[in-house]
Every structure is written in structure tokens, then in C-alpha cells.
Hints:
The structure holds four protein chains of four kinds. Chain A is of the alpha+beta class. Chain A has helices spanning 29-42, 74-88, 90-94, 112-127, 137-143, 171-184, 228-234, 297-310, 359-372, and strands at residues 19-25, 47-50, 66-67, 101-102, 105-109, 132-135, 159-163, 167-168, 188-190, 195-201, 204-210, 213-222, 241-253, 261-264, 269-273, 278-283, 319-330, 336-339, 345-349. In chain A, the strands form three sheets. In chain A, strands 1, 2, 9, 10, 11, 12, 18 and 19 form an eight-stranded mixed sheet that branches. In chain A, β1, α1 (29-42) and β2 (47-50) form a beta-alpha-beta unit. Chain A is globular and about 65 Å long. Chain B is mainly beta. Chain B contains one helix and six strands. By secondary structure, chain D is an alpha+beta fold. Chain D starts with a strand and ends with a helix. Chain B binds chain C through residues 1-3, 18, 20, 34, 37-38, 40-42, 54, 56, 58, 62-64, 70, 73-75, 83, and chain C through 143-145, 147, 158, 160, 269-271, 465-467, 494, 497-498, 501-502, 505, 515, 646-647, 650.
Amino acid sequence: MNEFVETLLDLQWHEPKSTYDVVIIGGGGHGLATAYYLATRHGITNVAVVEANYIGSGNSGRNTTIIRANYGIPESVRFYQHSLDLYSTLEEETGCWIMHATKGLLWLAHTETAMRSERARCLLNTACGAETVMVDPQAAKAICPQLDLSGGGRYPVLGASHHVGAATARHDRVVWAYAQGAMRMGVHVLQNTQVTGLLRDGERVTGVQTANGNISAGVVLSAVGGNVTTIANHAELRLPVRTHPLQAFVTNGYAQSLGPIISDTELFCYVSQTARGQMLIGAEFDPQPSYSTQSSFNFLQSCTSKVTHLLPFLKNLRILRQWTGICDVSADFSPIIGHTGVDGLLITTGWGTWGFKAIPAGGSLMAELIATGKTPPLLEPFGLDRFASDQALADQGSTGTR
Amino acid sequence: MLWLTCPICGRRPIDEFSFGGEFPTVPDRITDPATRDVDYVWMFDNIAGVTTERWFHHAGCRRWHTARRDTITDAVLHTGIEDATDTVL
Amino acid sequence: MSRIVVDGRTIPYESGDSVAMAVLRAGEHPHHGGALCLAGDCPNCVCEVDGIAYVRTCQTPAKPGLVVRRHPEVGAPEIREPAQPNVARSPAAAHIEVRRIETDVVVIGAGESGRIAEAEAVAAGRAVTVLDSADGNEVVAIYGGPTVIVRRPDAMVHYNANEVVVATGAAEIQPVCPGNTLIGIVTARAADQMHTAGVDLGVAVAVGTPPQTAPCMAVPGSLVRIVEADGKLSAVVVSHDGNETTTPCDTLIVGLGFAPRDVLSRMAAPHLPVRTVGQAAERFALPPCPTAGIVCPCSKIGVDDLDGVWDRGFRELELVKRASLTGTGTCQGSVCVPHLRAFIAERSGAIPEPFTARPATRQITLAEAAADVHTDVFRRSPLHDEHLALGAQLDRFGGWWRPWNYGDHVAEYWAVREAVSLGDVSTLGKLVLSGPDVVELLERLYPTTVADIKPGRSRYVLLLNERGHLIDDGMICRETDSKFVLTFTSGGAANAEMWVRDWIETWGLRVHVLDQTMSLAAINVTGPLAGELLQRVGLADQPSFLHHVHATVAGVACHVMRLSFTGEASFELHHPADRSAELWRALMASGRDLGVKPHGLQALFGLRLEKGHVIVGMDSEMDSTPRRLNMDWAVKMDKPDFLGRSALARTADLPDERRLFGFTVEGAAPTEGSPIFSDGAIVGHVASSFTSPLLGHGIMLGWLKHTPWPEQVQIDGRTATVARPPFYDPEGLRARA
Amino acid sequence: MLALETLHGTRIVAAPEALDALDAATWSTSVTVLRFAPDDVFVLGAETISISGEYAIVEAESGFVGCWLTDEQLAHVAEHIDWPLPVERPVLVQGFVAGVPAKIWLTSSATGERSLLLCAAPYACELTERLA
């Protein structure tokens, strides 16, 4: 018996109906969390979550599990801090063990430009409720003794911002916790059900076509990751989104030793150690769009080279598995949540490399929007219409390693 | 390894190139000029399938070329210095 | 006799022994138990070898003095920090050699099917490379290309092939029953290997298909359980015709069938020329559904665990895997996948496909992956050594090493304001454009008018994208009717070249481009005494403001541009990179009594802030329109067309709250990035700040993003006043002097 | 450690046809014509070059550094290149060498094969250190 085998959850599957009040396309974290909050906060339980594969089979099952709020603009910091707060009570609320662990995150700076960014990050984050403090190299070393402050002789550490509340949780378990919570309230989760089109009544979207038949809906929410353009095309909806591969790898399990999460903008890499002792290492998304989940050796070479400059103790660890997710990256690197301009169709997309950490906030706020018809203040900046009105959320800080 | 073929320099690992984006298109169904402009500057076709796109060989000749790539498999079907009207597959 | 060290004790080995065989020869188990395959499939022989954990010892030749440590029986192995070589400029793993080999066909596996594939390819006149683990070739993965990554004892080898043939054969099915983690269980092939190596198997009992050579007693029937005594197996219980029989033994040999060793085939992208042949391509029958025992030896997952997650609703192969962790360990499913599929097939009625195969099948260390990989290149200006000699603190900026300061940025500041100073601006982007369509190109590229720039004159320009957002700025210098020199920011230079070339091709214009960013160095001579200094070194006819000339300065051919970023009279001397140090020294020597000093970026950022000059990317944001930057003056909307024009026209009357402002505050300047508050709410942030030595207080550029824009704000707990830059010499008289 | 030194020459950007003619012309053995791109050439060792086309850009070029390699040195350099060197000679190859943008002029001469390794001057330090 392994202590990390799931022993608490019960997933209850239902036979599909032909009509629901809300149909959510995509059984990942965002889709299931939205269903969960619709059911638990707003009493809306006549809901189906339609998943093409198995729940969590997309990016929810492929990310590097980091939860943080240290973004570059107030709108993002507040949103992600809300998410971080919801995460910290999720185990209590759902009775599930998501393996949540607050670790803190060190964001390293090697140049004056990076120092300037990190100082700014600390001031803005703290002002918006996400405690982040600047630390000097010695303090960084005290937090993470394995750090090579010379950066392999090439990337000397000038300082770091320390985002105190950053955490990790096991990605699959987050998905299952929301799935179980929603299912218990009567939400139907339909696996292996590929959406092939949208039902239309004039301009209005009235449901989804699936390989297993049509399903009518009062409201349809697209919560897909990686294939949002395909869904949007069904409604002739144009999106400022490109789909990019995001690669990561994990080592074998080793004795617990790496305390905080380490991240680096210049070297495009981040590392944390899982509860099972594996080092989980990720990077920035690939520059070219692609729907391929094939991993590349170029990535492994580059990422291992960079990360071992900072953390030389990783050199002798063995790489267990490398994988790739595909993520929808918006034109301003911020998510797109809310109305689409197409009646009956809502959207949550553009989560890029930061969708996992947004699951509780994205789900709860989207549920509030669906239930009340009003866009919650935290979501207001993230509407699709911001592009036409030239009010992009230029948070270049929102990418994976920034 | 992902490889691309530069028409001037030959086959090289993808890290030697910069991605320059697909050729932007605006659907004919959009007729309002302002909406067309919004679409042109912000929206992406984001095709799951064969795209025509620009790559710059920054580590070599420092010239652009046009490639056709299947974004589902990452297979590069054609590279050439021809323009986007080239339809060789 | 040669020896290795296992858990601190030396044990002898014989020629040809793997580490695992040596341990078995010593009468021990390399792990803590579990059936051994000795073929690289199972995780039951992994140890730490010479500081590297998770090494399959059956694939590791014994070498004198090899240090082997068993993993702890409970918990994960400790991390052994590698010795730190002097890594100053070498890759992270300088000691590991990489070989890159181009070949036509790679055949993986030298068994029967591999040999056939090899012979076929040779007959077809193709060059073939055969990779077999017995020859020390551990195939790690097949990537796009196809590129086959191989780990050898002496190097990492990357094979680029036109075709890959996977002929890896089949793995033996491992037993799943109570007691299957005991010491003393081997597969039939492993038993033959041990027998051939002369390892004593003691009383050996075989269940299933017996080994070919190893002496043993074959017991008919199916495996029920394995009996323990003193921490190892003592007997095996077999069911035959409904009867259970117990047979005492020292070694249990299992011949339970095969599963295709097809991980590499499943890993390769479907469109790649990768073929699978022989047993690796065969669809073997699944083993019977397991009922008890450990299914996944890597993660120690039992059938009861599978039952548990199944009963909790995890009904897909991937969900069972993820909920139970089966198949997520070192062997990546080699042992458990057949049993897991059999488990699910029995409960669901359908045989699931194996889960996705991902790199790596044979594990490599991070150092092995990083071998001969270099990170980004840091560029050096031709004046690099001059800066070091002057005590510069260098910083990396825009991909270049640049002087941040020379020890005292305030003294450098005063040299610019009151005397003369040199700045190294070699890193600026520099393009030469020539052609019949060059004016047409520049009119479309820039929001300013270009046709009216006379030869010998220059103009400051913004570079906008199609969204009307600032992507760079710089100067246009007109040389002749059909030839221009363009400059760009240091950080924007590479993108600018791409941008210009792309649009020339897109528009089909006849313009030649030469990028001289790295061919020409540039020195900015700035300060009220700049003219005098240049007079001394031979620049008699000095260009007036926004003019440029070609002239010889201190014997060096220079393109001299008169402009100003610092606010003082400034002359940018662009000149051949190989003459730069000579020119720099001449200027430093001739200006000594004028008080000449070099200035770094830190002083420059302050100097330009006093003038309110924006630095792209520091003050501007991704979506900064000229209007938001108060730079509408640089945009001629009456031009017929230019990049960004339609977007600017479309958004001109939209409501907008974003605007870059100047701010002043008593005392030292607040930290850059500080939030700006009004009535307790965040209304913006400081983009850049400087404590002006001349003004004696803090000045800032910053964004306000909420209207009405206040006249006073709170920054850093202090009251700051919104001001209109420039903060210094608003008429610009000094720049033109 | 390779000693990279400034290469003094002439850089010409002109119509490809004009450069084809330049490329095809018979030069003395001391002249090296490096064709960076169809419209871009770097000529080493030529005193005067005439080029047709009124819009051609002709500039003295001293922004590259390089050194001639022995076959042994070339083999060492090639170990740090991800892509295969072609067999044809003479040929200019361009791309990452030890991760640094560089070019190699591979040639055959009566005295045996010699190759010119060159890169933009700002890269010189990194290239030599990485190849050391």
C-alpha cells in the first residue's frame, strides 16, 4: 500500500439526459469547478459536464501544480489571490486530500532589469494582498540551501522575490475533488463524449451536438483547454487565442529536500518537489503554436541545462517522464472569461500556463456569472470585448515563468 | 528534436529559428470595417491542421521563409521562399 | 579478482557480470525483493550506482570499485550532491560527451527480428546502425526527426535517421500473487542468464514455461502464492486441476508469457517513419486478471489498491493509473500494464489500450540531458575591455553585457550635465536600407512622414505594430534619395530587423537591407563640452541638431548623428567595430582636462527621465498607443496609411483611462514599480523613477489607469504631484546648443 | 583556444543576379567570397569590387571575426554542432556552433582542406570559450 493512493473519493456517474439547464464543455478543473460552485453555492444542479476523454485528461492532468498569485497587474494579483485563498480551504470544504502544501516561492533575479521587476512585483503584490518580499542572495540561500548563488558561474543571483503564500497541490486530486463535490449534488459528468458541434436557434446557442447525441442547454459554457478554437468555430466566434505546447518533466522520487518552489524568468524554468519526492520541472510554452502533445528533446536539453545552473544538486537525478500539454494563450497573456457576444454561449479560456492555479477562482466566479447573470467585479477586466475596445490586460507578467 | 529546413541554409533544429506567425486572414462573413480591423489585429485562426506560416532563421542567414506545417503532428510539409499563395503540400 | 562495493561491503564479480549478476552471485538481491527479469524491464534491480539512484543494475556492467547502494526499503533514496567543477562558462554538464550521428536506418534491438530488419536494409543498400542494450546502448527515447537518443557508458549519442525500426522483442510477464515481492523469484530468461553465468539457483522450481537451460523442477499449474520464511521465499503454491500444491524451493522461476516491448513504438509520433517488427509488434494474450499481490512494484501498488479505486468510480485506465499511481514509477508500466489491462478488461468487459508512452524508457540524469547544451549567448561590445579597465560594473541588458555604472552613477550624471561624457551605445540596432521603394517602405512602416526628410537630416520615430501599439523607437537618418540608416533600441534591434524584412517581403517592395547592428560600434559623446571635445579630435564641421554627417574623428571614419537622449548636446559616433577601442581612448585622452567620464545605464536612465524620454519596454507597456504615451505629435494621421493607422483611427474616440504621467515627490524617488494610490485605491504604478541630483527630489514616469486622473497621488506613503515632463530644460535648448 | 581575429572585407547587399555574377567570377586564391544569403555577400581579400545595380549597398565590413581551421580543429568544432556538415566543397554553412550563431566556409585547396570559422565580433568571446 502506497500512502498516496486515492482512498477518500467516490465518483458517481450518471446516465445522460437530453436537456440540462447548463452544459459545460470540458471536464477539466475549470469545467468541474464551475459545476461544483453552481451546485454548492447557487443551487443549480441540473448541469452536465461533457468531457471528450476522461476527467482531467487535458491540462488539468498535465500541469506542474503550482499555486501562486504574484502577478504583474492588480487585476491579476487580486484574482489569483482569491484563487489561492479558495485553494487553502478546499480540503476542509470538500473533505478531499488534494495534497495542498504552502511552500513559498523564490523568484530569482540575475540582472538589474530583473531586480527592478522583482522589486515591483513585491510592492504591487503586497499592496493587492499577496504577500511578497524582496530577499537578498544570502536570505534566498537560507530559504533554499541548494541554490548555487553563482548560477553556475553564469547567472549570479542578485536577489529574489519571495512569494510567501505560494503552494502546490496534486493536480488530479483537485479535479476529482470538484468532480465528486459536483456529482454528489447531482451534476452529471459525461466522459468519452466529444462535442462535435453547437445547437443553434438563429444566433442563439441552445445546446451541444455530441458523438452520443444532442444535448439541449439553457446555457453552454466552453471550458475546454487546448481546443477552444474548435468549439468557438462552431459558433463562428473569433478568439484572440493561439494554442501552444507546454512541456514539463519529472524526476524519480527522492527524499524530501527542496523546500520552496524555485522560479526564474531569465532561465525560463521552475522547480518544485512533489509529496512523492519527485522534482517537477517546467518551463515556458513553446514559441510556435501546435496541437501536438509530442515532447521534444530540444526542450529537455534546454530546460535541464538551465535549471542545473541554479540547482546543481539536480544534475545526478534521473528523469522519469517528460510530457506536453497544449494550452490556449491569449493575445495579452491574460485569461478570457465571460460572455462571448453569442447569446447562450459563455467562455473561459486563455488560461495559458496558469490555468491550474486559477481553478477555484475561475470556477466560482464563472458560476456566479451564470447564476446571477452579473459579471462579478473580479472578472470584469477579463472579458472578451476588451480587445475590440483596446483595453487589453497587458500583464506580460502572467506567463509561466514571469 | 524538431527540425525545420531553411531554404538557404538547410535542415536545422527549430531553436535556430524564430516563429513569425501565420498569415492572418479575416473571414469574409465579417463585413463591418472596424470589426474586420479588430479581427485582423487581434484574432487568430489557430488552425488545427495545416498552416502557412513564417519562420526567420536567426542563427543562420537571417532571412524569412514560409513553411507549411501540420499543427496536429508538427510535421513540416513544405518550406520555401515562395509567398503564401504557394499551395504545394 | 575485481570487486565492487555494495552497501559498504566489497563483493567480487566475474568478467562479464552486470552489477545485478555480481550481487546475485554473492547470494543477495540487488533490491529488497521482487521477481528479477535481468532484461531491463522491471524495477526490481534498481540501485544507486556511483551516486546515481534508480540505475538498473542488470544493465550496468560491473567495473572495479563501482559503489553500489541499495535504495532504502522504505522511502525514497537520498540526493547525493554532485561535486562542483569550475563551471564558469561551460555547459552544465561539461564532462559528458555527446556524439551526433547521421545514419539512414536505426534498428533498435539485435534479436532475431532486428537482424532481419538489418539484413533487409543492407540488401537495399542502406546504411544501418543496430542498437542493442547488450552492447551498452540504452535507447532513451525516439523524438521527432526521428532522433533516437541513446545513453552509452561513455557518452550520450543522438542518432538522426531516415527510418527507425523498433525490434525490441517482448518482455516477460511478471508474477502477481501474494508473496511476489519476496527474494528468490526470477523469470525464465533471468534463470538461464544466471545459470550461464554460473550462479547457483539452489533448489529451483519452475511455474509456467520452464527456462531453456537452467536446471529446475517444473511444477504444472498456475501460481497461487509464494510462501515466505526468514524474509525470502521458501515455497511456491500452485493450483492445478483444482488442487493446490506447495513446493519448497530456493528459487522460483516463472515463465508466464510475454508482453510486447513496444514503449518506443507507442512513444513515437504517428507520422514519423518508425516501424515495429517481430515480437514488439505482436499482440500477446493478456495475463489472467490479478487477484492479489503487488501489481506495480515501482510504487508498491497492490491489487487491493486497484480494487479500491475501481470501487470509488475510477473506471478508465488513465483514472485507475492516476488514482492508484500504478505505472507511474521507474519502469513506466513495463511490469504492470499487462496486469492493469487484464484487471480493467475483466471489470469493464473491454480491453483498454495501454496508456500513453512518453519519454523516457531508459532514464538519464539531468546532466546527461544537458550535455553539450549551452544557454543563451551574452554579447560583448567592442568596448567591453575598456569598460572593465575603467572599473565598470557590467550588467546584462537586452542580450548584451553593458556598463551599469563605473562606480558612482551620480558623478557620471554630473559629467553629462556639466562637462562631457562618453556612453557606449554600440548595442543600438542599425539597419541600412537602399532601393527604389525605400521611401514607400518607410512611409508605410512609420507613423511619421518620411518623404520630407532631406538627405543629411534625421528624425525621431516611433515604430508601431498593426494594433497601433509601440514596439520600438529610434532614428531615421536619410543619406540620399534612396538610402537611409535606421536605428532601433538595443533590446528591440533583433525584432526590428525581422520586422523590416518581413514587411518588405509582404509588400513586395524593392529595398535592400543590411543589418549593421554588430558591425558598427557607437559612442555617444554628450554634455555641454561635447562639441569642444569633438573639435579637439578633428570634428570641425559639426552637425546641428537632428543632422548627421560622415566625418573622420580621431582618425576613424564615423557616421556622426546629432540628437539627444540625455538632454544635453549629444553626438552619436557610429564607426567600424574594430576601431572602437582606439576611438574611445582618443576621446577619453583628449577630454581629460574637460572632465570627461564614461557613464553607464544607471546614470543614463536618470538623465533621460529628467527629460521625460520614454524607454520602450520600461515605461511603455504591451498596449501603449502614442496617445497613452502623450506622443500623438509623432503620429501623422493625415498620412494615407502606415502600420497601426487603422487601429489608431478606430480606437481614437473610444473611452480610455490609461495615460503615462510625470510625477514629482519630495525626497528620494520611490522604488520603480511602486503602486500609485488615490483615495486609498490603486490607480496606477510607477514605471521609472530617479532622485534628481539637480532638482534635489524624486521624479517619476508612471501610469494612471483610472479617471478622473488625480492631480495628487500617494506613492510610498508620500504625496506626489502629477507633473508634465520634461522636468529639465523644457525648451530643449541645451540639446540644440 | 581558437584565436579569432577581425576579418576585413567588403559587405555587399544587392540583387541576387548581381551577386551570382560576383560569386561566379574568377578570383585570385587570396579572395574568399562568402555568400550569406542570395542578396548578401561578404568578400574577403579583394581590393576592388565592381557591382552592378545603383541601389546596391556596399560597405566596408569589420564586424566579423574568424580563424582558419585545420581538419583536426574542424572535427573538434563539428562535435559541437547539432546538424551535419555537408560533404560538398566549397560551401558556406551557417547556424549554431556550440549554441553561438556562426558560419563555416568549408573549402578544398591544393594544400588540403581548410575551413574558415567566423562569427559576429560580439559573439567571439563566447564562441572561443565554448570551443575551448
